[in-house]
Amino acid sequence: MTIDPSGGSAEAVARVASGSYEIGFADINALIEYDANTRDEPISAVMMVYDTPPFSVFALRSSGIKVPKDLEGRVLGGAIFDASYRLFTAFAKANGVSTSKIQRKNMDPALRETMLVRKDVEFTCGNYFSSLLDLQSKGVGLDELVIMRYADYGLDIYGNAVIASARLVKPGATELAGFLRATLRGLKATIANPGDAIAAVKVLDPLLDERLELQRLQLAIASNIVTTYTRIHGLGDVDMDRLSRSIGTVAEAYGITHPPSATQLFRAEFLPPKDARALK
Hints:
This protein is of the alpha/beta class. The protein contains 13 helices and eight strands. The longest helix has 19 residues, at 174-192.
């Protein structure tokens, strides 16, 4: 079994699709797009990690932006392949915002927060736990920001999941089931003691900024992983009706005419039972 260590979404899907890796960690919305175009060897999501996505709008409070409608007539900056940027049309539709009244500036992801601070753009789209810390590192206080998380503004979609190749996703796949058991144990331990998790990663990456990455991890746990749903139903699984609606939302935003069904996209049978996935 080969596991993609990159953490990138579109890249992880592409690497699993190419056969370079058999398991990855990717945005399920990127997977919807891939599976819609690949019927012969679809990739499946086998364990949900981000029950709510991190996608968010960021603006400086000094811009006068307070609510989604205030985004009309403004300049949006973002990375063209970034999921939060691509799904902005869905956020706009859910909030009655006319995208025809918004100017877009495409840029490298590394420049996104800098451009906002310099006021070269009036708002950006990015991941909550990354963009927030990047802006704070540039001297922008939390009280100086307006943050609109898509999940708080009517976009009930999922985020990143463990994905697996068609070779692994087959009846009686004990190898995959064992991997998910171990992954869930690790995820539960990370939630219980995030500082220990960062210390373990530091062993592999001595240059890691422990303070910064602990903040990032704690934000991800609190806003994306430990949710009302996962407290009740445990980690890893999804609500299939919600996933079906999510697929429809993403398909419309991405212009997908024949999206995969929820049962094609997500395979829950390799997850351990609910009591093993429960949050204590």
